[in-house]
Amino acid sequence: MKALYIASTGMAAQERNVEVISNNIANMRTTGFKRQRAEFQDLLYQSYRRAGSATSDAGTQVPVGIEIGSGVKVAATARVMTQGSVTPTERELDVAIRGEGFLTVALPDGRIAYTRDGTLERDATGQLVTVDGFQIEPGIIIPGDATAVSISRDGIIEAFIAGNAAPVQLGQLQMARFTNKGGLEAIGDNLFVETAASGQAQIGVPDADGMGNLLQGYLEAANVNAVTEMADLIAAQRAYEMNARIISGADQMLQATSNLR
Length: 261
Fold this sequence. Notes:
Elements: H1 2-26, E1 36-42, E2 45-49, E3 66-69, E4 72-79, E5 86-88, E6 95-98, E7 102-106, E8 112-115, E9 121-122, E10 128-129, E11 135-137, E12 146-151, E13 156-161, E14 168-172, E15 175-177, E16 185-188, E17 191-193, E18 202-204, E19 213-216, E20 218-220, H2 226-258
Antiparallel strand pairs: 1-4, 2-3, 5-20, 6-19, 7-8, 7-11, 7-15, 9-10, 12-13, 13-14, 15-18, 16-17
Helix pairs in contact: 1-2
């Protein structure tokens, strides 16, 4: 019976849906994380009676045909790029992005990655890096004797250095935005890389040309809503159970048929 195979596609799709939801819940405390949503599509249809086909020599036509679908599939796991809430950290190198844009990061293999995680650190040379030691682009070095580092909303980094009465400008953070930011590829470590679907990065500075601004001493939290995720999880579980019952029902029908004398 086709019902067995149709219901099996429903179970497989809901299994993927639960995996997406579980990843969202697991990353509720991940800085700058953007939740995903499973999107479904129906599969091919088998037509037993085509709508519009002739039913008589007088030209009458079938108003509604007979089509039986083959089930469902997960077409995409779209990433929801809405703004997460900002939370204070009291660390002078932490920055939260409010609005559009990503910080640019230089990877060891020469590629440029992009992140919403503004947890910044200084390495042994004073270079501004991510928590994994990847250099922030453009490179900014904070001297070892620098104190009271400040980061303005437009990304300008200043610090008081011994022997200078006035703060010294050390550089300016740059940001990137994309035509289709949902098309970015997540590579882990809170990093994304561009793809053909995302389009090329449009580089600029914070608080200009459509870019968001920066808030020092804060971080952007994940945009995961625990209540919504739990509701989606319950719905996915019930859909999985209903598909399982269809398989059980179809099996009972086949058993009844095989028991006919």
